[in-house]
Structure formats: structure tokens, C-alpha cells
Amino acid sequence: MKKTRPVNSNSRENYMKGKTVLVTGATSGIGKETAAGIAGMGATVLVHARDRSRGETAVAEIIARTGNRAVKLLVADLASLREVKSLAKQVRSETGTLDVVINNAGGYFSKRRITPDGFEWTFALNVLAPFVINGELLPLLARSGKGRIVNVSSEAQRMGTIVWDDPMLSKQYSGIKAYSQAKLALIMYTITLAENIGPRHVTANVLHPGLVKTNFMSNSTGLFRFFGNLVINLTAWPVERGAETSVYLATSDEVLGVTGKYYHLRGEIQRNKISDNAADREKLWNLLEQYTGVTY
Ligand SMILES: NC(=O)c1ccc[n+]([C@@H]2O[C@H](COP(=O)([O-])OP(=O)(O)OC[C@H]3O[C@@H](n4cnc5c(N)ncnc54)[C@H](OP(=O)(O)O)[C@@H]3O)[C@@H](O)[C@H]2O)c1
Question: Is residue 31 part of a domain?
Fold first, then answer.
């Protein structure tokens, strides 16, 4: 098992001691590495998993790698709005203050699936779940005084468009259409979120982690899976590099007060022009409120 730096005393580590961080989808890939990186800085890390046994394995591994025992497991399937709300409830009963939420859980689905609430799966997992988690946990983040929200998007956003007359893609579905729409929507939502929560001293940023070797292709099929795996095997980054942007936005004092930005590694990168349209962003926000019943 690879060792993560144990807790010691450089400045980022000092800054993170006593802080509490939620990482969703922390059982594998970028999320597990992000959780380990932040646990290695001495923070309390709330590791979210949809499957208890995979979650327990991840928690044990992170504790063994970092020597930090303040790593706790929370379980919820984020494809169900009821369970997303239960995750927020578990966080509230675990801690009185929350410093960072990293909405990392996400995925690509070649075949159209519908969640128990009747939403297209990609949109529910990548957009509705972060909308509900952030809304429900905003009071805790505000209590921190310097709360941060970090949403994990993707450069697939560049190909994205919002299908306003059929966001659940019931008439014409493809995995890439659903994924690029969802990751663009996550960026549009984050910009409005940053504008809305500024007065509460909580920042919100969104990021592209890079092309990273993970279980990301596990729900893809056919040629996309074949070529996707080929490209990933030949060119993708290891998870340590893939987690860098999330860890940076969650912990660095270089981005204290930075909000509403789309990042890759340590710099801002270009967003799809569609996300510049404030009226469309507001339309999306209203849609998310309507779908989830959550307002904030
Ligand atoms: N890998 C890349 O090249 C890449 C590029 C751009 C963006 N991203 C984004 O990076 C994020 C992390 O993905 P990854 O590459 O690390 O993939 P991954 O290894 O498949 O990890 C995804 C995580 O999300 C969890 N998850 C999936 N469905 C869930 C659900 N219904 N409820 C709760 N948790 C669920 C998974 O849990 P299980 O262990 O139970 O499956 C896992 O912990 C995603 O948002 C992805 O879109 C990845």
C-alpha cells in the first residue's frame, strides 16, 4: 500500500488541523486520493460512500496511509434525493461546523437510466446531488467563517449544451450528451452559487481534475468503452495528480476568498461560453430548486 505523507507541520497542514472536510465518492479514484491527501494534513475527513463495505475498506486504507484516525464513514446513494438529504443529516449529526465540502462523486453512463425519483441518472448524480448537499450544509459551512465548496466537473463541459426542452434527455440520449450537459450545468450552478453565498463568507469553485486513471469507464459500453480505456491506459494521469486540483482548492490559502472560478491544477481555465449567460444560469437554478424542492 502506498504511503501518504504522515501528518506533520508545514503551513497547509497547520491550516487544516481542526478543520472538517466532507468528500463525496471517496471509495475510489480521485475522491479516495483527495480524502487521503487531506487526512494527511491532519483534518477530520468525512468519507462518503454509497456502499458500506467499500467505504469501510477506504477508511481503513486512508487511516493506514496517513496515521490520522479522524476519518469517519457516511453512507448514502446519491442517486436518490432522499438519501442525499440523509447524507446531509448524517453530516449535521457528526459535526457542528463544516469547513469544506468536496462534491466529487459523479459518473458517465452509456445507457440511459432513471433514478428512483424519476430523473436521468447522470444529471441526478452530477448536478442534483451537489445542489442538495450544498444547500442543506450551507448553514454549517457559514458557521466556519471561511467555508469552501469544491465541485468536480470535467472538460467534457466544453461539448455541453443544456437541452432546455428535455433536460432528462428522454427523446434523444447518449452518454456523452448527458455527461457534458451535466458537467456544464455543474459549472453554471457553481457560478450562481458563488454569487449567492458570498455574503455568508462561503466560497464555491469548480474544477477539472485532468484525464485520470480511475474506475470512471465502468458504466460505459461499446466503442466508447474500448477507445476510452485505450486513451486512459496510454495517457491518463495517476490518481495522485488527479486529486491535486481538489486538494488545492480545498486547502490552499492561495485561494482563500477566491470564488466562482473554474480551475485545473493551480490556475483558472476557460469555461464554455454558455456559462456566461446569467439569465440561463438563473433558469437552471430555478429548475434545480423545482426538481429537488431545496431552496437556499
Ligand atoms: N477520471 C477522469 O478522467 C475524470 C475526468 C474528468 C472528471 N472526472 C470526475 O471526477 C469525479 C471522480 O471520478 P473518478 O474518475 O474518480 O471515478 P470513480 O473511480 O468511478 O469514482 C467515482 C466515485 O463516485 C461514487 N459514486 C458513483 N455513483 C454513486 C452514487 N450513486 N452514489 C454515491 N456515490 C457514487 C463511486 O462509488 P462506488 O465506489 O460505489 O462506485 C466512487 O466513489 C467524477 O465527478 C468524474 O465525473 C473524472
Answer: yes
Q: List pLDDT tens digits, range 146-205.
A: 999 999 999 999 999 999 999 999 999 999 999 999 999 999 999 999 999 988 899 999
Ligand 1 pocket, mutate which of 81, 158, 215 (most atoms under 8 A from CB): 215
Q: What are phi and psi of 20, to 5 degrees?
A: -120, 130
3 falls within a domain: no
Nearest CA to ligand 1 atom 6: 154
Domain of residue 88: give its range.
11-292
C-alpha cell at 116: 428512483
- 2, part of any domain: no
Give the Å distance between the CA of 20 and the centre of ligand 1.
Answer: 21
Find out whether 260 and 187 touch, Cβ atoms under 8 Å: no
Q: For residue 148, list its beta bridge partners.
A: 100, 203
- E-state strands within the chain: 20-23, 44-49, 71-75, 100-103, 147-152, 202-207, 262-264, 267-268
Residue 81 within a domain: yes
CATH number at residue 129: 3.40.50.720
pLDDT in tens, 220-240: 888 888 888 888 888 999 999
Pocket test for ligand 1, best of 47, 113, 216, 262 (most atoms within 8 A of CB): 216
Three cell numbers, residue 271: 469555461
Query: What's 216's DSSP letter?
Result: G
Q: By 3-state DSSP, what share of the chain in percent is helix, strand and coil, each rounded to 5?
A: 50, 15, 35
